[in-house]
Specification:
It is a single chain. By secondary structure, the chain is mainly beta. The chain folds into three domains: about 170 residues, Sandwich (Jelly Rolls), CATH 2.60.120.260; about 425 residues, Galactose oxidase/kelch, beta-propeller (Methylamine Dehydrogenase, Chain H, 7 Propeller), CATH 2.130.10; about 100 residues, Immunoglobulin-like (Sandwich). About 5% of the residues lie in helices and about 35% in strands. The chain is built from four helices and 57 strands. Strands 20-19-16-15-50-51 form a six-stranded antiparallel β-sheet, with no helix packed on it. Strands 47, 49, 52, 55, 56 and 57 form a six-stranded mixed β-sheet that branches. It has a five-stranded antiparallel β-sheet with strand order 3-6-11-8-9, with no helix packed on it. Strand 4 and strand 5 form a beta hairpin.
Length: about 775
């Protein structure tokens, strides 16, 4: 039964609601007073069904309410136990929007007849148009959602309401490049092994926020960071743009971020603290994500303290721009950890955009914590390399080398930078006019380091594009071919003189992710066969994507195999999920590969190449074998320290001939850049008891910069589950208080926002030290 009412709810339910805060920052153009934020959002490619839709069927007693604060001014609520609302739809996902307040109670949600969740809609703060339930990982087809009032809660006769359902309509046709015989299984499906080389691919879990940036923080969680947009995961009444994803349960917990972290970089420091730096200004009226209440993120240094807790319940991100910030604004900067445990922050541009240019270029490096090195006193240090490499030089490929120098690649060029002397050594140009950095992003890796050759460094670059970076967007097409080139350079005098060694991948791709495995092999996943990174910039866009033709089959690269035999996709499974711009992949402590993200869109979208929240898991063949087991692993490893590991070796490998111990940094992943990705094989020997391994820590900080790492014991190409260690003494990086104080004195808080306010004013001065 439906009852009409012109009030929010009956007087008998009208508690003294807490006033909803106007949670926002920027005031939209043409208004003087910010209004309360409402998460209700219908992305392109989705469809909204208001509570008055005839497609929604109500049973029990429901009341119609009308108010401009509701979607389409209508809402239906009930306080009757057992009352239900049901809608059948065709698509791949659905969201339920409604209200929260102190009169609300617990609802049960059913999908296709199966109860999937009980949700408590009680809130101490009254909020409208809230996303109460969402799911996006259903197979395309007909589904039914049912919401039922359980009559339970913190009050008598608790209310639930329906404001709107938003359906993700999905697509009936998979990308044409997909081999349907190898398509990804449905969630939870277990695949059988046809051979010892058979890989697995499972889709299980959703991230809640788009996985633009990702890093493993513990054996139970990864940290995901996105830009400000209408993600389905909410925190404090607004969409979240960061979350913790549980590797074991696949649960997600939203994190509060104060500033816009769009296209930021990140690294761990020597004490295990993670910093996430740079980002984007407050977007204002140029995107539908405006008025989220975020701060300017261009100079932000976001702090995430070590969080080993299995629940991660107290893990949070901290910001304080008045005391903790970079000296200069940076968007698309790369961040690495160097041998003293501090962060080197490289390049970027002074504001968001697309292709870099000399007007917005930030051709500098700076350090966190700030240093007084080279008379900088905490301010940026000019790097000519980042001027020479315009235009396509954002998110440069940067690695700390075992001789304490820095490898950098940008556009078509590369150098070795000595950070202690501020000297550049040019390296041979990358062959065949191939560009390797944004928006022609390639994958870059420091190949495994080993004591057998005294930790000699070698660089691998795969993919990218030969598109001319001086062309305007209207002369670049989403159908322009990517590059299949892989180039290797041995960083010895002889290797540099010989130049890059060129190989070809089986398929061209840009925006690939290259993931080091404990075995020393490299898994290359994600990316597109044509186009260029970004969205909304070129001709022949697909949806908003600048790229097309997703590459759906991973390829394994073996650096030690003979030339011509290094690439293989034997036993690989092809995915049905395009992983385009803003995709990520990482090795997990368990040894499989987590693949997530893809969002070549201004805001969340459900058109072709829309915003992707589903997570896939790539399982190498070793995941199905008996694996070594390390008992009571150590939590710390000093340089040159000898430690004994107690290892249970599988019976099948009791007489193993090949035992290795890999110390790995799993990296901070974003935009095809795997910053700090590193594999160092440790000196090790089998103790006479046959059950113990003696290992020796890295010889010096340059080989493995101090900070967190993961150790895997590999027996005949089968690794153990990784365990986390702190390499070094666990102290924080050196703090130069003079440099820090000078940075705060000589720079403004959120300079970009200050500069906008100063335009047109004669008085005052905008300090820009870039």
């Amino acid at each position: 039964m439906i009852i009409l009412a012109l009030v929010f709810f009956p007087v008998l339910l009208a508690f003294a609601w807490a006033k909803e805060s106007a949670w926002n920052g920027q005031t939209p153009s043409g208004t003087e007073t910010p209004g309360p934020f409402r998460p209700y959002y219908v992305p392109p490619g989705a469809k909204s069904y208001d509570s008055s839709s005839p497609l929604i069927h109500f049973t029990g007693s429901w009341v119609d309410s009308f108010n401009t604060m509701y979607v389409a001014t209508t809402l239906r609520w009930t306080d009757e136990k057992g009352a239900a609302a049901r809608m059948t739809f065709v698509g791949t996902g659905i969201e339920w929007f409604g209200g929260l307040d102190r009169s609300h109670g617990i609802a049960a949600v059913f999908i296709d007849g199966k109860k999937v969740q009980e949700i408590d809609t009680w809130s101490n703060v009254s909020r409208k148009q809230q996303r109460i339930f969402w799911t996006f990982n259903m197979p395309y087809g007909k589904h039914t959602i049912k919401v039922r009032n359980l009559g339970k809660g913190r009050v008598d006769s608790p209310v639930i309401d329906i404001d709107a359902f938003v359906v993700t309509e999905g697509h009936t046709i998979l990308p044409q490049t997909l081999d349907l015989s190898n398509a990804t299984p449905q969630p939870g499906e277990i695949q059988s092994f046809a051979s010892q080389t058979q890989w697995t691919l499972q889709q299980k879990g959703v991230t809640g926020v788009s996985a633009m940036q990702l890093t493993v923080i513990s054996d139970t969680h990864v940290l995901i960071i996105d830009k400000v947009e209408h993600n389905p995961l909410s925190i404090g009444g607004h969409p979240a743009w960061a979350a913790l994803f549980n590797l074991r349960t696949h649960a997600v917990r939203p994190l509060k971020v104060e500033s816009n972290s769009f296209c930021a970089g990140g690294t761990f420091l020597s004490n295990g603290t993670l910093i996430n730096v740079g980002g984007n200004p407050v977007v204002g009226g140029y995107t539908s994500a405006a008025d989220f209440g975020d701060l300017d993120g261009l100079q932000a240094v976001r702090i995430f303290e070590p969080c080993p807790s299995a629940s991660a319940v107290h893990c949070n991100i901290y910001e304080n721009h008045s005391r903790i910030r970079m000296a200069s604004p940076r968007w698309y900067n790369t961040v690495i950890r160097i041998s003293d445990g501090s962060a080197m922050i490289v390049g970027g541009s002074k504001k968001g955009g697309w292709m870099n240019n000399e007007t917005v270029n930030n051709p500098t490096i700076e350090y966190w914590p700030p240093k007084s090195i080279h008379n900088s006193i905490g301010l940026p240090i000019h790097l000519p390399f980042l001027v020479r490499t315009l235009n396509a030089n954002l998110f440069p490929i940067v690695f700390s080398l075992p001789d304490d120098r820095i490898f950098m690649a940008a556009n078509q060029d590369a150098i070795i930078y000595d950070w202690r002397t501020n000297q550049e050594r040019p390296l041979p140009r990358i062959p065949n006019e191939c560009r390797v950095t944004y928006p022609m992003a390639a994958a870059g890796l420091l190949l495994p380091l080993s004591p057998e050759d005294d930790y000699t460094a070698e660089i691998l670059l795969c993919g990218g594009s030969t598109i001319d970076d001086t062309k305007p967007g209207y002369e670049i097409s989403s159908q322009d071919s990517a590059s299949s080139q892989c180039s290797r350079l041995l960083l010895t005098d002889q290797g540099i003189a010989a130049g890059w060694v060129v190989e070809q991948m089986p398929e061209a791709r840009h925006m690939p992710d290259a993931v080091l495995l404990p075995t020393g092999e490299v898994l290359i996943v994600n990316g597109a066969g044509t186009g260029i990174s970004g969205y909304g910039n070129v001709i022949n866009q697909v949806g908003q994507s600048n790229a097309d033709h997703p590459v759906l089959t991973p390829v394994l690269y073996d650096p030690t195999a003979p030339v011509g035999q290094r690439f293989s996709s034997e036993g690989m499974r092809s995915s049905a999920i395009p992983r385009m711009y803003h995709s990520v992949a990482t090795l997990t402590p368990n040894g499989d590969i987590m693949v997530a993200g893809s969002n070549p869109n201004l805001d969340r979208s459900e058109v072709k190449y829309g915003t992707e929240y589903r997570v896939e898991w790539v399982g190498p063949p070793y995941m199905n074998k008996n694996r070594p087991l390390v008992h009571k692993p150590p939590k710390a490893l000093l340089y040159g320290q000898n430690l004994t590991l107690s290892v249970k070796f599988p019976s099948s490998t009791a007489k193993a001939r090949n035992i290795k111990v890999a110390l790995m940094d799993l990296g901070f992943v974003t935009h095809a850049v795997h910053a700090n990705s590193r594999l160092v094989y440790l000196s090790s020997s089998l103790v006479s008891d046959g059950h113990s391994l003696q290992i020796t820590g890295p010889p010096r900080p340059a080989v493995y910069p101090p900070g967190p790492g993961w150790i895997y014991v590999i027996v005949d190409s089968v690794p153990s589950v990784g365990f986390q260690v702190m390499v070094g003494n666990g102290d924080g990086p050196p703090v130069d208080h003079i440099a820090w104080d000078n940075l705060l004195k000589m720079t403004a808080v959120d300079q970009y926002e200050v500069s906008k306010k100063m335009k047109g004013k004669k008085k005052g001065k905008y300090v820009d030290n870039t």
